[in-house]
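pinging the channel bc i need a second pair of eyes. not urgent but kinda urgent?? the chain im working w is below, pasted from the shared doc
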Amino acid sequence: MDTRPIGFWLKLVDRLIDEQFAATLDEHGVTRRQWQLLNVLARENATVEQLDAAVAPFLSAATDDSPAESSAEHLTELIDSAWVAATADGYELTERGRTAFEKLEEVVAQQRTLMAEGVSPDEYQQTVGVLERMARNLGYED
């Protein structure tokens, strides 16, 4: 049997997760990056630097042709929708934003349940633990 390497499965699962979550969130008028920012802000208010750090693995890095992507680019529409407010100390969810987040949280939970179907909680935790150790072995620090 020709077993495919871990990189194949990681990239495939990552792409499928992105596609599924993007489609699910798009139905509700939110991008995946906006969802991630809402998720951070639902826990605590944050500056753009704190938001960038929290969602860093999902933002595009700087290249010779363009600067690094920032959370600020994804906050504009959330502010325009009155889901997020800019304050002197950073950004925070509004009441409207918190209500929207709670509704989206239910949709995302359904998507996560579907994604993990047939995977026991122990298998899921083991997989996450192994991937975290591999990332740290490769130099990831949080």
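so Helices lie at 6-26, 32-43, 48-54, 72-80, 95-115, 121-137. and The radius of gyration is 17 Å. — does that match what u expected or am i reading it wrong
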